[in-house]
Specification:
This protein has helices at 21-31, 41-56, 62-69, 78-90, 101-118, 128-143, 147-162, 172-181, 186-199, 202-224. With 235 residues, it is an all-alpha fold. It has a domain at 7-90: TorD-like, CATH 1.10.3480. Helix 8 (172-181) runs parallel beside helix 10.
C-alpha cells in the first residue's frame, strides 16, 4: 500500500510545503491514479501552487513539477486547475520564444482532458464557474495551437457570416484574437488586417488592428533573438 504524507489537509495558508523527493514522487503517482480525488481539492491546488514556487526558488527540480502537473489531464475541478491557470499567466511570455514547443505540447496534452470535459458550447443551465473554466481552458488551448480549437473558431466565424442574427452572440473579436495569436509572420498579419477591414465594422477593425500591432511587437522580440549584434569598427 502506498503511504505518503500531505501536510495541512483541507487547509490553505501563507506558507509553502516542501517534501523529500520520495514523498513528492509518491504524491505524483497517487495524483495520477484513479484515487486522486481522495486528496482534498484544496490540497490538490496547494500541491501545484507550492511545487511551482519551490521550482522557481530552485528547491524542486522541473521534472518533478512536470510530473505533478501531468495529473491535471484527468482533473475537472476548477479549484484544482486555478493555480495552473495562474502559472500559465505568469509564464505566458516564455512560450512566445523558439525552443518551447516541448512545453507547449506537454501542456496541451494536459489541457486536452479539460477541454473535452467542458466542451466548446455553453449550456444556458450551467453555472458561471463552469463557463469561466471553459473560457480559461479554451483560451490556453487556442493559444498553444490546439487544432480542434482553431477549427471551432473558424466554424463559429462561418456561422456568424451565414446567419449573423442567430449567431450574433459569438464574440468575433475573441475568435480573431485566437487566430492572430497563432500567426508567425508580419505578412500574414497584414492579410488578416486587410480582410477584417473589408469584411467587418470599423470598431471590430480597430480592435483587430490593436491585436495585430501587439502581435507584431511580440514577433519582433522573438526575431531579435536571432539577429547578430552590430559590431562597430573603430579606427
Amino acid at each position: 500500500m502506498m503511504q505518503f504524507l500531505v501536510l495541512f489537509n483541507s487547509t490553505i495558508g501563507y506558507y509553502r510545503v516542501n517534501y523529500d523527493s520520495s514523498n513528492w514522487q509518491k504524491i505524483a503517482n497517487y495524483l495520477k491514479s484513479d484515487n486522486y480525488t481522495k486528496i482534498h481539492v484544496l490540497n490538490r491546488a496547494q500541491i501545484i501552487d507550492d511545487a511551482y514556487h519551490l521550482m522557481v526558488a530552485n528547491q524542486l527540480d522541473i521534472l518533478t513539477f512536470l510530473d505533478l502537473i501531468s495529473y491535471l489531464s484527468q482533473e475537472t475541478d476548477f479549484i484544482a486547475w486555478y493555480p495552473m491557470f495562474e502559472i500559465l499567466e505568469i509564464t505566458e511570455d516564455f512560450y512566445k520564444f523558439p525552443g518551447t514547443e516541448f512545453f507547449k505540447t506537454y501542456i496541451l496534452e494536459i489541457l486536452n482532458g479539460l477541454v473535452k470535459n467542458v466542451g466548446y458550447e455553453e449550456d444556458p443551465a450551467e453555472d458561471d464557474l463552469t463557463k469561466f473554466k471553459r473560457s480559461q481552458a479554451l483560451k490556453w488551448a487556442c493559444s498553444f495551437g490546439l487544432s480542434e480549437c482553431k477549427r471551432m473558431a473558424t466554424v463559429k466565424l462561418n456561422e456568424h457570416f451565414a446567419d449573423p442574427k442567430t449567431h450574433k452572440k459569438y464574440d468575433m473579436n475573441d475568435a480573431l484574437g485566437d487566430i492572430i495569436d497563432n500567426v508567425h509572420s508580419n505578412e500574414q498579419l497584414d492579410k488578416i488586417s486587410k480582410f477584417v477591414k473589408n469584411k467587418f465594422k470599423e470598431e471590430v477593425y480597430k480592435d483587430v488592428q490593436g491585436k495585430v500591432k501587439e502581435r507584431k511587437s511580440e514577433l519582433s522580440d522573438i526575431f531579435a533573438i536571432f539577429r547578430l549584434p552590430i559590431i562597430e569598427e573603430r579606427k
